[in-house]
């Protein structure tokens, strides 16, 4: 069986069907909609493939417009907005079955000398001192539910929560809207910096909205909300490898009007701030019959 990390690399390896037009696969999985991080990662690959490859991406801004259908290919159309002396800008539209489901603007920049400063990384235990997500679920339930086991088999990232999961409403009392996890790809991703950037873009949508849910309901178990990513922004500060451990520190400054805002900071093990992330998500209460789904939000 192919390693999930290899499947992620394959997922990000788009087919060029015309100049500035690419086609990406969408796995036929038992999800309501295509995972948003997949679409964002593939769109960034499409943007990067129309540059000379010498300028790393420094920011992206994206909107999730419609839910994508699992199992149906997605076409990415790239518009070359600007090729300047220091910056390159691309706009990408993702189309599935004739409808626009997503758009993204990405900017690429040649690194320059300048000031160096950042806020320090939070003091947290290292990933080796923490259980994997599967081990934590198994220790609480005694065995992995079949739905979780299926997800675990296709999961391209090892995820380790810094704080233990809370399983009951009673445990949520006094909990702040914050979450932190260590993550890394479950296998090597090769040496192409664009692949690592797009893989991290994929990972950035996996659990950022956890911070919004944290004070409201347990992250695992019956869900009380239909959740979907609405928009997503990232700023890439330093080079990195996504197959090495990184800390994803998340917080939610506000949730209101059926939407929740989450901010994330991604650090390497040495404490360097690699990436900043901001996302807004939709939160609609589920009717009682809809609340049987288990697990965290699938994004997008």
From TrEMBL:
Domain of life: Bacteria
Domain Acyl-CoA thioesterase 2 C-terminal: 153-282
Domain called Acyl-CoA thioesterase-like N-terminal HotDog: residue spans: 33-109
Protein name, UniProt field: Acyl-CoA thioesterase II
């Amino acid at each position: 069986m192919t390693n999930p990390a290899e499947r992620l690399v394959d997922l990000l390896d788009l087919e060029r069907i015309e100049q500035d037009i690419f086609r990406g696969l969408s796995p036929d999985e038992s999800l309501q909609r295509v995972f948003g991080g997949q679409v964002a990662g593939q769109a960034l690959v499409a943007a990067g493939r129309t540059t000379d490859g010498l300028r790393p991406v420094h920011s992206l801004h994206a909107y999730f417009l419609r839910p994508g259908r699992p199992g149906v290919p997605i076409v990415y159309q790239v518009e070359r907005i600007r090729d300047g002396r220091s910056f390159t800008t691309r706009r990408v539209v993702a189309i599935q079955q004739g409808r626009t489901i997503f758009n993204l603007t990405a900017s690429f920049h040649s690194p320059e000398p300048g000031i160096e400063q950042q806020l320090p990384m939070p003091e947290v235990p290292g990933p080796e001192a923490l259980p994997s997500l599967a081990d934590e679920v198994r220790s609480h339930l005694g065995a992995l539910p079949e739905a979780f086991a299926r997800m675990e088999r296709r999961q391209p990232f090892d995820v380790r929560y810094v704080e233990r999961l809370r399983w009951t409403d009673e445990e949520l009392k006094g909990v702040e809207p914050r979450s932190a996890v260590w993550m890394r790809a479950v296998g090597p991703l090769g040496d192409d910096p664009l692949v690592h950037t797009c893989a991290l873009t994929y990972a950035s949508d996996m659990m950022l909205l956890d911070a919004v849910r944290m004070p409201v309901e347990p992250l695992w178990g019956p869900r009380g909300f239909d959740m979907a990513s609405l928009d997503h922004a990232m700023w890439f500060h330093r080079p990195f490898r996504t197959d090495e451990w990184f800390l994803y520190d998340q917080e939610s400054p506000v949730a209101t009007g059926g939407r929740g805002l989450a901010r994330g900071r991604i650090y390497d093990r040495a404490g360097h701030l690699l990436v900043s992330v901001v996302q807004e998500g939709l939160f609609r209460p589920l009717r009682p019959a809809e609340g049987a789904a288990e697990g965290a939000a699938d994004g997008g």
